[in-house]
Amino acid sequence: MPLTLPQEAWLVLVTAATPVVELRGAIPLGLALGLPLFQVCVLAWVGNVLPVPVLLAGLTRMLSWLTRMPRVQMWIRRWGERGGSELSHQLQRWGWLGLAVFVAIPLPGTGAWTGAVAASFLGLRFWPSLLAIMVGVAVAAALVAGAGMAVMSVPQ
To answer: Which range, 43-47, 54-58, 97-101, 147-151, has the best average confidence (pLDDT)?
Structure first.
């Protein structure tokens, strides 16, 4: 039985699944289209989380394959010698909690896609990373929905 959703719901779902825009664009879009807040949040959360397992598994396999190449190994070693980045140090220090907080911050470049990339590059385990990203996306959805409702309630 095919899943039948109105066109507006599909727009929210697909927008949330796209990199960069993610739910930070999908929630305002859904609210602007007149969909109910709860439905918008659920659709945005589902759409944003859908690509994460594929990203986590695929990027981990790709990195495993790439690290067999001498030039890639040398680049990774140099990057590590320079101290990596502050983000990688914090994510390694805080683990899944740091990953969840990173994903939850509703700023450009801090969503589920970036979280999956970071988890893969840092070698974090699949299931804890997936759960942390799911929690982070839920928190981000609440923050973005709250901001969206506040903006929409301002008198014109």
So the answer is: 43-47
Please check the confidence at residue 83 and state whether its pLDDT lies above 90. no
Q: What are phi and psi of 14, to 5 degrees?
A: -70, -40
User: DSSP letter string over 27-68?
Assistant: HHHHHHTT--HHHHHHHHHHHHHTTHHHHHHHHHHHHHHHTT
- Through-space distance between the first and last CA atoms of the chain, rounded to whole angstroms: 43
Distance (Å, rounded) from C-alpha 27 to C-alpha 118?
24
pLDDT band with cut points at 50, 70 and 90 for residue 77 = low
DSSP assignment of 85-132 equals -HHHHHHHHHHHHHHHHHHHS-STT-SHHHHHHHHHHHT--HHHHHHH
